[in-house]
């Protein structure tokens, strides 16, 4: 390998790699130090090339021990092939993720190359912060309903005979509602876990999307919303839609709940055929648009609507609903967008491909 880190047999230039790459020759001197390595370590390529690996890349473990002396790539076990990724410290205490590969001409021969990969810990730290925020948010949201359940059940057990039947019914209905809230929070947490790990399963069945919209509107009307607050437009004929009915209900429920709670005026739901772009081809799809006449979403917030913990107002909620909605739509192979509706409020539009399960194709 040339000291400048030129292109290899595959035409890949080390300068194009997203991670830091440091390569030392059989004598332990650096012969490749790409731009990402220079950025991560704050050491210039000019200062690193030709220098002993331990001097060019002085790493310590979290206990302050010199890592190259501990691992001894050139004089250690002849069967060792490298070092797994771990957190190490650069001078000044900056953390970096380091892994190493020992290249030998034959399995137990001398080391001809030491190839070191460097990665910043920032992405991992963001993930850790996100997980910590998720735990804190869910714990906070669980505390209120659980406190309520505990308080009412303890009161009923201690003073059952003192309450009238109507009072008992009211307390038990409150306990039931809070238990449902806890169940929803746990379901959200499980959905987040499956979305993040790519394990969200979609069980496709025929779905009457127009009927599903109608059920959700009836539920809102039954809970006290005025029937004339909702305007439904169905453009028929609609293509047959194969999707997971429970998850589509979850998407519709979340979008309508947001429109009712955070929007204002008439909530309009439109269902219409729409093309879906799949592998550079237009396929049949179904589009659902939910819009309101409220203040809408500020332009500067549009890009964050589908991220974790985004809240359109200070009126409670975990801020996870739209993140889950996006995960469900994308698990179906669809897309979802947000914008400003004709009435000035928020407008959410998702498009689902209508393809049947593989066993029916």
Automatic annotation (TrEMBL):
Q: Which residues form the Histidine kinase domain?
A: 137-356
Gene3D superfamilies linked: 1.10.287.130, Histidine kinase-like ATPase, C-terminal domain, PAS domain
Question: Where in or outside the cell?
Answer: Cell membrane
Q: Where is the PAS domain?
A: 15-50
Q: What is the lineage of its organism?
A: Bacteria, Bacillati, Actinomycetota, Actinomycetes, Kitasatosporales
Q: Write down the CDD domains for this protein, in alphabetical order.
A: HATPase, HisKA
Q: Give the EC number(s) listed in the UniProt record.
A: 2.7.13.3
Annotated keywords: ATP-binding, Kinase, Nucleotide-binding, Phosphoprotein, Transferase, Two-component regulatory system
* PANTHER family linked: HISTIDINE KINASE 1 (PTHR43711:SF1), TWO-COMPONENT HISTIDINE KINASE (PTHR43711)
Q: What is this protein called?
A: histidine kinase
- According to its UniProt entry, this protein's organism is Streptomyces melanogenes
Q: Which reaction does it catalyse?
A: ATP + protein L-histidine = ADP + protein N-phospho-L-histidine
Q: Name one GO molecular function term.
A: ATP binding
């Amino acid at each position: 390998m040339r000291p400048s880190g030129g292109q290899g047999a595959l035409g890949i230039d080390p300068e194009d790699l997203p991670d830091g790459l440091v390569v030392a020759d059989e004598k332990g001197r650096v012969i490749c130090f790409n731009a990402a390595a220079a950025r991560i370590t704050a050491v210039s390529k000019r200062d690193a090339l030709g220098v002993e690996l331990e001097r060019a890349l002085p790493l310590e473990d979290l206990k302050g021990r010199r890592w190259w002396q501990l691992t001894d790539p050139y004089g250690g076990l002849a069967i060792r092939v490298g070092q797994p990724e771990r957190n190490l410290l650069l001078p000044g205490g900056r953390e970096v993720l380091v892994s190493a590969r020992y290249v030998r001409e034959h399995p137990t021969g001398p080391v001809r190359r030491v190839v070191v990969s460097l990665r910043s810990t920032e992405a991992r730290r963001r993930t850790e912060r996100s997980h910590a925020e998720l735990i804190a948010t869910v714990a906070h949201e669980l505390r209120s309903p659980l406190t309520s359940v505990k308080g009412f059940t303890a009161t009923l057990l201690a003073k059952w005979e003192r309450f009238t039947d109507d009072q008992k019914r009211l307390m038990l209905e409150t306990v039931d509602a809070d238990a449902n809230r806890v169940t929803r929070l746990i379901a959200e947490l499980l959905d987040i876990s499956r979305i993040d790990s790519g394990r969200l399963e979609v069980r496709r069945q025929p779905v009457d999307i127009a009927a599903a919209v109608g059920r959700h509107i009836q539920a809102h009307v039954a809970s006290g919303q005025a029937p004339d607050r909702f305007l439904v437009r169905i453009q028929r004929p609609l293509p047959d839609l194969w999707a997971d009915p429970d998850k589509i209900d979850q998407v519709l429920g979340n979008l309508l709940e947001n429109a009712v709670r955070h929007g204002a005026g008439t909530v309009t739901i439109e269902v219409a055929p729409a093309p879906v772009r799949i592998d550079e081809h237009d396929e049949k799809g179904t589009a659902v648009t939910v819009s309101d006449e409220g203040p809408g979403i500020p332009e500067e917030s549009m890009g964050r609507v589908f991220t974790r913990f985004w809240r359109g107002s200070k009126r409670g909620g975990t801020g996870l609903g739209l993140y889950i909605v996006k995960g469900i739509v994308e698990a179906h192979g669809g897309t979802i967008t947000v914008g400003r509706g004709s009435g000035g409020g928020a407008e959410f539009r998702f498009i689902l491909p209508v393809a049947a399960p593989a066993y029916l194709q």
